[in-house]
Fold this sequence. Notes:
Low-confidence stretches: 1-95
Largest sheet: 6 strands, antiparallel
CATH class of the largest domain: Mainly Beta
Radius of gyration: 40 Å
Shape: rod-shaped
CATH architecture of the largest domain: Sandwich
Oligomer: single chain
Number of strands: 26
Order of helices and strands: EEEEEEEEEEEEEEEEEEEEHEEEEEE
Distance between the termini: 113 Å
Amino acid sequence: MNPAGLLNRTSSLAPGTTGFAQTTAAASGDFIYVTNDQAQQLVLRLSDGQPVAGGEFAPYAAAVAAPNTGVGQPSISRGFVQFSGGTGAFVYRNADLTAPAVALTAPADGATVGGLVTLTATASDARGLLGVTFLLDGAVVGLDTVADSGSPFAATGATYSVQVDTTRLRAGGAVIEAVAEDTARQAASSRRRIVIANTPTPTPRRVAPAVSFTVTPARDVRGPRRFTVRGQIAVPAGVRRADACRGRVTVRYKARTRTISTRRVSVTRACTFSARTTFRVSGRFAGARTLAVRVRFAGNRVLLPRQARSRVVRVR
């Protein structure tokens, strides 16, 4: 006996065996239908996975006689439907034929959005939900399987949400969609249109810093000749030190018009820099008695490149 449109599974049971329908795993409102060997149709209604108190087994229809308490009588044992005797018993569990309910709640229909946007929907289903998938122009942008608030079993439903970074998306009109899926893999959706309009982040105006440095010693006439450049980048007013104190500095030594050494060093978090150079062969000086030392800051996101005033050291 299979009530039309309600049942979707059957299982033949031998006397004293346990049925496949595990009541502790069933959701509130589930039904388990039982036919014993007396061809009597019984129904077990569950609440939160347990039989409803005071009427666990009742006839499926008024025309069906009360269950026989003898052969084939089903009972509850350790959360399962069990048969104490009889032959040819069957257990049925009704199919879920009702799709979930879902409604987008934010952003509003036709709203203009930008930046980080939260998509929110409420969904409900008497049997429970697997989750809500959010799409934008047909592409999945997030899945929420744990409700933020409420209960999917309640009439008011539960709230689900995901966040979307619209700065990576094309500007203009778009369709957002929330798709709720219940435990029977039935789905329902809700759609609305929005407009994506992000304000471009303005490029900060760069300013020129002051760059200063010293060279020690000022005179080194015996090989190997070693010189150390130490300098600092002055942070202009209105510029964050964390933004200003970054980048690279180039230190060049020139003998007459020829560059004989180039060093590149990084600016520290304290906006300082240091570079040590050693000349082991005096022939590189091309007969020059002095070397010109030049320092150039390459600039960064907030500071312009800047050339410092040259300094001179003696090598002969």
